[in-house]
Amino acid sequence: MKLTEQQKKEKIKNLRPIDDVFFEVLAQNTDVCQEMLRTILEDDCLVVASVVTQSDERNIYGRSVRLDALCVLGNGTKCNIEVQRSDNDNHLKRARFNASSITVRDSQQGTTFDEILELYIVYISEFDFLKGNKTIYHLEKVVRETGVVVDDGLHEIFVNTAIDDGTDIAELMSCFTKKEVKNPKFPKLSSEVTRLKETDGGVQIVCEVMQQYEKIAIQKDHVEKIQKMIKKGYSKEEILDLDYTEEEYAEAEQKNKSENSSQRY
Predict the structure, then answer these.
(1) Which of 202, 180, 172, 170 has its CA nearest to residue 28?
(2) Is residue 144 pLDDT above 90, yes or no?
(3) Is residue 101 in a domain?
(4) Are residues 219 and 140 in the same domain?
(5) 154 and 242, same structural domain?
């Protein structure tokens, strides 16, 4: 059912910066990303030159790679910002997978390993899954025998909205859980949240991204149903007769093959 303009505004009114759809639209604003990263990385001189969002790169990096906002900083360093509300995954391995995918995809063939890109992963969650009662965690590689920190160009920062330690980072995180953001410490974020919720142009932009997410959710549901039908012995013709697409069938078939392969090892 098609929503009226008023219904769209009501739905958008309940969104928060931590929500996938709303964050993706917020992240299209480089000034907003710059304000966030200056706070989280504690660098007032940091510059965000450009941002690529999930919808822009969904098919380039692959469906399983989560790129809510891949920022290119002024010095060429890259920083992927991800927001995560659900707590049903291995977050450390998820961050590692995304970092590896970005590194491989963005590294030029023939370059030396010295030239592999510098990459920051900023992972924002609604829960303190590291359970240290901290707002922010910086993960580092340390030589066990000497205690020396090793710099391999990957920097992982995990931030959460659950713990308030009284810092500016915690105050920024509190903004992520609010439907209205009007904080003078974060003028770019506050202004963009207001624009996206209270202007016709902003509402339209958010609606377009919502529709993309709904389309992806429907396709995922279709693929899962097709997987089950394939396992039960339905033929391709029988499945396609139920108005599923060739693309959905091919994805379901590939997923079943991958699952069968992994079970053999």
Answers:
(1) 202
(2) yes
(3) yes
(4) no
(5) no
The whole-angstrom separation of Cα 172 and Cα 195 is: 18
Mark whether 186 and 224 lie in a shared domain: no
* pLDDT one-digit tens code per residue, 42-96: 999 999 999 988 765 554 555 556 678 999 999 889 999 999 988 878 899 999 9
How would you class 163 by CB atoms within 10 Å of its CB: exposed for 0-12, middle for 13-18, buried for 19 or more?
middle
Q: Give a yes or no: residue 8 inside a domain.
A: no
Total domains present in the chain:
2
Contact 65, 104 (CB under 8 A): no
Coil, helix or strand at residue 132? coil
pLDDT in tens, 176-222: 999 999 999 999 999 999 999 988 898 888 888 887 777 777 888 88
- 28 inside domain: yes
Proportion of the chain above pLDDT 70, given as a percent: 90
Domain, as residue range, for 150: 14-198
Question: Rounded CA gap, 23 and 167, in Å?
Answer: 22
